[in-house]
Specification:
The complex is a heterodimer. Chain A has helices spanning 2-23, 27-47, 51-76, 89-109, 124-132, 139-160. Chain A is mostly helical. Chain A is globular, with a radius of gyration of 20 Å. The termini of chain A are far apart. In chain B, helix 1 (5-25) packs antiparallel against helix 2 (29-54) and helix 2 runs antiparallel to helix 3 (62-92). The chains are: A mainly alpha, B mainly alpha.
């Protein structure tokens, strides 16, 4: 019951914040609403009993990506004109609404193979096992991800460096 | 009054479509990047919801492992994307994607 109420509060805040991100005229304000959206999504992860991911969401999205995006807004100084939209608002609304309707119809008419409906325990050590176990883990993708992060870091630095 | 998987799926669908609308409509490149982040977050919610409701117990957390990879890629994407936007802003004094059309045929 408490879970139910919490879900509806969080869902309302998420959808409202996402709408403000898209509709706000001031791009700095939409960046702040994006941070609010990330934070409430961490609450959704808590409801789904994914405790490690909730912490990672706050650290990576709210902490790193949010701050990086706000830096980007400040450095490009387009705050007043950030809310401008293209003239394709009607077709874009049509595409988005149509896709949403199709997805909702499909979701509600599919019998998902729900096998598990209870709270689970702490996930951190299980997550580490799923990531690093020898036979069914993801060790190689993990290493490739770290290489990709390094490449992105070097690429970002070499792009914005003064020549 | 219990939460089913459909609640989370519909929430993720709404979030994804809001992000899609923003990507199609916005003209500022930084705003487009923000809307892409919204879409990635919607997919993350989907992965975690499917992992909780359709896999028995806490033993299989493959969906959550995928979310970690998506977060990694999102962080790298924002870093490189913002670097490109700042470089373009330096040389052309705009972040309007309608005016960045040097490579358009």
């Amino acid at each position: 019951m408490g879970e139910f109420v919490a879900f509806w509060i969080l869902a309302t805040v998420i959808v409202g914040a996402a709408l403000m991100v898209v509709l706000s005229r001031n791009i700095f304000r939409s960046a702040l609403f994006l941070v609010l959206c990330f934070f409430t999504i961490a609450g959704i992860y808590v409801i789904l009993s994914a405790d490690f991911l909730a912490a990672a969401q706050v650290l990576i999205y709210v902490g790193a990506i949010g701050v990086l995006l706000i830096f980007g807004v400040m450095l490009t100084r387009d705050i007043r004109r950030g809310g401008e939209t293209t003239r394709w608002r009607g077709p874009a609304f049509l595409i988005g609404g149509l896709l949403l309707a199709i997805i909702i119809v499909v979701v509600l008419n599919t019998a998902w193979p729900v096998t598990h409906d209870g709270q689970t325990g702490a996930t951190t050590s299980e997550l580490a096992k799923g990531l690093f176990s020898i036979d069914e883990g993801f060790v190689l993708p993990f290493e490739i991800a770290s290489l990709m992060l390094l490449a992105a870091l070097i690429g970002a630095i070499s792009l914005v460096r003064d020549k | 009054m219990t939460l089913g998987i459909n609640h989370f799926l519909v929430l993720a669908a709404i979030l994804f479509c809001i992000g899609l609308y923003g990507v199609l409509v916005k003209r500022n490149a930084v705003a487009i990047l923000m809307c892409i982040e919204l879409m990635l977050n919607a997919v993350n919610i989907l992965l975690v919801a499917f992992n909780r409701y359709t896999v028995a117990g806490v033993e299989m957390l493959t969906g959550q492992v995928f979310v970690i990879f998506v977060m990694t890629v999102a962080a790298a994407e924002v870093a490189v994307g913002l670097a490109i936007i700042i470089v373009v802003y330096r040389s052309r004094k705009t972040t309007d994607v309608d005016k960045i059309d040097l490579m358009k045929w």
